[in-house]
Amino acid sequence: MPKTEQLYSLDSGHTFVYFEYCHFGFSRQISRFDKISGEIKLNLKSRTGSVKIDIDTKSVSTGSELFNSHIQGIDFFNTAQYPKATFVSDRVEFEGSKVTAVHGVLTIKDICEHITLEVIHFEYGKHPVSGEEHFGANAVAVVKRSDFNMSKYAPQITDEVVIKVAIEASKVK
To answer: How far apart are the C-alpha atoms of 142 and 161, rounded to whole Å?
Structure first.
């Protein structure tokens, strides 16, 4: 366990932001953003940290080019005007040496909302391939799309959206 604050960079091949919503009552749709960047600072000994995540909203992946362009359009993410969403923490909660929650501001379309990412899994150690300090986490939050001016088709498409984050990060040398 590091005894000082360490800087970690996100592993772009193993870090994704997913979102899930109910589509006209028929199914739960799951989509993701493929391009995520950012950094995390953690001091597991003093139980402090910070998180900054940048999401390329043009990298949305629904499994359909038609739906990708629809979600990138003016009714939803409006990626032509707002190509990036961000999450910046203002507080990280710990239980022992495990991160349990990250509180911060999610900004989409220049609209800022305070959210809490509940960390449901956190693991720290040496990566079995690289041998470097590494950690992984999974977190979840629920937001309302109407809070970000994306309420088209509500309530047929649920206003509440579940955000799931899968992160892996390596210590910056």
So the answer is: 6
Q: Is the pTM of this model over 0.85?
A: yes
DSSP for residue 14 = S
Coil, strand or helix: which one is 93? strand
- DSSP sequence for 112-154: EEEEEEEEEEEEEEE-TTT-SEEEEEEEEEEEEGGGGT--TTT
Separation between Cα atoms, residue 104 and residue 37, nearest integer Å:
17
CA distance 136 to 121: 8
* CA–CA separation, 25 and 33 (whole Å): 23
| In the predicted structure, residue 1 carries a pLDDT above the cut 70 | no
